[in-house]
């Protein structure tokens, strides 16, 4: 009789601790709009519609390189109740030609 109740303990998921922390996500594309407080990045995938996302830029946002229109960038961001906030913006330069 006791063995039947011993195995009936509920199994709790450990996801509730992970859900409290916002997860970093990445978005790469070309800058289509840029201001002091936000950046809009558009990416195009062959055979699909282009996707545009706008990210808030805060004083905590770490920027690597000089972002300007039509530059390729990778944005690490977190989503919260106020929207998407850029954590890090990395400007990708054009590949350098090989030296012979």
Would you kindly provide a written description of the structure presented here, covering whatever features stand out?
The protein is mainly beta. It has one domain: OB fold (Dihydrolipoamide Acetyltransferase, E2P) (Beta Barrel). It contains two helices and six strands; from the N terminus they run H-H-E-E-E-E-E-E. The protein has helices at 2-6, 15-20, and strands at residues 25-34, 38-43, 51-56, 62-64, 72-80, 83-92. The protein has a six-stranded mixed sheet, with no helix packed on it. The longest helix is centred in the N-terminal third of the chain and has 6 residues, at 15-20. The protein is globular.
Using DSSP, what is the number of strands? Answer: 6
The main sheet orders its strands as 3-2-1-5-6-4
Helix count equals: 2
What's the CATH C level?
Mainly Beta
Strand content: 35-45%
Mean model confidence by pLDDT: 82
Order of helices and strands: HHEEEEEE
List the helices and strands and how they pair.
Blueprint: H1 2-6, H2 15-20, E1 25-34, E2 38-43, E3 51-56, E4 62-64, E5 72-80, E6 83-92
Parallel strand pairs: 4-6
Antiparallel strand pairs: 1-2, 1-5, 2-3, 5-6
């Amino acid at each position: 009789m006791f063995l039947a109740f011993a195995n009936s303990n509920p199994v709790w998921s450990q996801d509730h601790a992970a859900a409290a922390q916002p997860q970093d996500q990445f978005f790469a594309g070309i800058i289509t709009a840029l201001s002091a407080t936000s950046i809009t990045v558009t990416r195009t995938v062959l055979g699909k519609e282009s996707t545009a996302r706008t990210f808030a830029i805060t004083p905590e946002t770490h920027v690597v390189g000089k972002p300007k229109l039509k530059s390729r960038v990778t944005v690490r961001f977190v989503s919260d109740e106020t929207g998407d906030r850029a954590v890090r913006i990395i400007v990708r330069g054009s590949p350098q030609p090989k030296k012979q």
